[in-house]
Amino acid sequence: MQIISSKLDNGMISARLLIEYDDIVMAAGQQAAVQQAIVELSESLGVSDVHYASVNEMTETDNGDLEIVLEAAVSPQVTLGQYKGLKIKIGHNEDFEKAVLRAAADNISVEIPELIIDRQLDAIENEAKSEVLQSTALHTLADIYSIISRLNIELKDDKSIDEVWEQAMKAAENYIDQNAQEVELMVSSIKEVCNAKEERIFRGIVTRAQERSKLTADEIAAQVFEAYLRTEKKSLDAWRNERRELAEMRCREELMLKAVIKAEGICPNAMEIQQYAYELACSYGMNVDEFLSYVGEDGIRAQLSQQKAVKLIVESAKG
Predict the structure, then answer these.
(1) Which residues, in sequence order, are CB contacts of 123 under 8 Å at separation 6+?
(2) 300-317 average pLDDT score
(3) Which of 13, 92, 159, 237 has its CA 20 to 30 A from that of 64?
(4) Which of 233, 267, 300 is the last residue in one of the domains?
(5) pLDDT value, residue 292
(6) By residue range, what is the domain housing residue 47?
């Protein structure tokens, strides 16, 4: 592996690396070779713990070498405060474990790199996308927006994106209010806001159905989430900013647990790892060996270590 360029600034690593073909062969694949390159890069920069490494660019050369551009965050230094024997006041319906972990996380001293917060916001956004995917109304709105947007292009109607969304929301509201499922009612709902002939609208609906069947799950989720944001009258940046405090708290909890694991010397033994892997494998309908090959023993160890840390903190706390 060759480091073409690298930079470590405020807990953030950015680098361009050349992974040679022989390294890829030795690692038995590109993914493993990239992971090994990240380890070697970390060692060269004198850092031992890297979070959220992501490859932003990847180019394969004619001779099989791989040039990548990546970014990552260095795990920040955490100073633990009190985490055992916490006295917690909670509301009637408040979850005791969550309250204890939040209090322990509040007690740490740490400067969290921006990239770690951004990645946590990504996770929160993905959770929200999964939730809104359950909404039939938002799926309908996303479909109607796509149909009207295409019609406006065909009709050479110079409406802004905001205006098209306004049309789509009016049409979707009318269609949903009728508890409609028939194509004819969708046609009439769209016709009320869009100056197009019924035949053209019908063709637009058919085209959308055909295109939708070819979309990936991520593409559909993105479109439905955009429909959700439009109903909330919020930009994605505004939505993420509202959840920044939650993201920071999650980061603090994760970093606190990691520091507790280190401070307490928590290290599950082989039997505990095997037993936990067996329980998880059963829950996914897989055999243990298959599950371990997919998740990896290190992943199981990390999950189990975190569980032990949580148990230690919570069981010592008083409500």
Answers:
(1) 250
(2) 93
(3) 13
(4) 233
(5) 78
(6) 2-74
Residue 258, pLDDT > 80, answer: yes
64 and 145 in a single domain? The answer is no
Could you tell me which of 148, 184, 181 has the C-alpha nearest to residue 167? 148
Q: Quick count: other Cβ atoms within 10 Å of Cβ 137?
A: 16
CATH of the domain at 49: 3.30.1660
Q: Order of strands, edge to edge, in the sheet holding 66-74?
A: 2-9, 12-19, 66-74, 50-60
- Say what the pLDDT of residue 180 is: 61
- 147 and 62 within one domain: no
- Do 59 and 142 lie in one domain? The reply is no
Are residue 142 and residue 226 in the same domain, yes or no? yes
| Residue 308, φ and ψ in degrees, nearest 5 | -65, -40
On whether the CB atoms of residues 11 and 73 are closer than 8 A, the answer is yes
Give the mean model confidence (pLDDT) for residues 145-171: 92
Domain boundary among 233, 260, 275: 233
Comparing 49 with 206, the larger pLDDT belongs to 206
What pTM value is reported for the model? 0.82
The total domain count for the chain is 2
253 falls within a domain = no
Dihedral sign of CA atoms 211, 213, 216, 220 in order: positive
Nearest to 66 by CA among 98, 37, 105: 37
Q: What is the mean pLDDT of the chain?
A: 91
Q: 89-103, pLDDT tens digit by residue?
A: 877 677 899 999 999
pLDDT for residue 140: 94
Residue 53 identity: A
3-state secondary structure of 214: coil
Q: 30-40: per-residue pLDDT in tens?
A: 888 888 898 89
Give dist(CA 157, CA 30) in Å, integer.
48
